[in-house]
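Submission checklist for the structure archive. All mandatory fields must be present; incomplete records are returned to the submitter.

[x] Identifier: DUF1822 domain-containing protein
[x] Organism: Cyanobacterium aponinum
[x] Residue count: 467
[x] Sequence attached
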Amino acid sequence: MSLDLFTAFNSEDLWLKFSDKEYDIAMEKAKNFASLAQQHQALINFLASNCLIKWLNMTYGDLIRQVNFEFEEKDLFSIWQFVNGTPLIINNLSRRLVVIPEECEDLSEFNIPQEWLDIPQLRGDYFLPVQVNLETGWLRFYGFTTYEYIKKYSYYNRYFAYYILPEHFLDDDLNLIFLFEKYQLFNHVEYQALPQFSSVEKRQFMEQLNNIEASRVRHHLNFVQWAALFADKSCRLSLYKKYQPISLGSWLENNFYQAYSQGWQNLTDLMDSLNFISSSPSVSSNGIVMRSGNVNLEYIYQINDEKQLKVAAQRLSVLPTNSVHKNQVLQALNYIMSRSHDDETRWHAAEGIWRLEPNNPNAGLWCGKRLNLGLEMGDLSLALVIGVLPKSDSQNSIFFRLYPTNNHLLPANLKVQIMDEETKVFKQLTSREGDRILQYKFWGNKGEFFWIQMSYHSTQLSEAFII
């Protein structure tokens, strides 16, 4: 950004234009977040604060020594994971300026997260609202306020844990901030200290957040307990790491620590509440009954045709787990895995192997997570199941499934979007009346990101993964 890229369309507001390069840098930072909501929050925070820092240091260099980020990048990420806003420091730790961006049209109220006012270690002195327009590339800084004004004139929204200040209490002239700083015209405000908690108590608070969705973490504890964790750098970073995109490659190395810490379970632990496979074929003494007739198991080893391998894998995959032919079928399915290069065939075979011998290397790795899309779903909960199967040295195959739990049916018009690392939708699924499952198979290069977003009416939930 340079000075020729800012324009005052309205003399009372500051407008800054960000470049495509600055947007791309911010987008790379945002990929460090699991959900699309947190990704968007990080994107607009980095854009707004980074552009403002550059402009302030160019414009007010004679009044202030320096304006910069208060925290290192990882610390900022741990903040943006849960709370909107970026703290900047004026004059080497003298005063804190909190930039709070929003992508909205309604500027009648300024929403300030409680953390920036009621946690002494993070309390802001000045607060700048920013209107962000990602489509046009403009940032609009339309005023500022102070800690004293917010405490005196705002009202508190307990549900969102925000202080809300009407727009007419904002001061339009940003120059005043730096005149206050130069001539030290600011007031030293008294604030109320929060209770102190021991490391044991903080650990107990952290345990209460196990299996809590990232969007609900901030509201799960009371504010005093949450503030103790959020103000503690170590606790905050631990929480941030907990909600990083799930590494599917780690599953193939039998490393499930990250997944289990985010509420995922081995699929065997979910089986009691999932109608995983609804039917099984009968088995004759000499083989498996196929829809086209009897096929002797020994005949499978003579099959070279990919279509015939697929049919065999499909029928073998639903063999009853108590079958006397279990060992023979396992051997045949492992043979199909070694012979077939077709993803559909291999997944049928892998499913069959998993049902008969879950720890078999050819079964793939399967984990599931219970989901709650809120009150609109009534008493129905869902289970997201992901299977991973090596495809080549540089690629893995992914099998996505979404189930209702406890033998319910999926509600109609439940939507699932699967997005690539650029958040472009490459597959969309919509449930119909009477559907029991939504599923999709795809593959990707190791290290690539993808997102699965589920939505029902106005409720959305997303999960992020690294292949």
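[x] Structure attached
Curator remark: The longest strand covers residues 395-404. The chain has three domains: 3-183, 199-242, 245-467.
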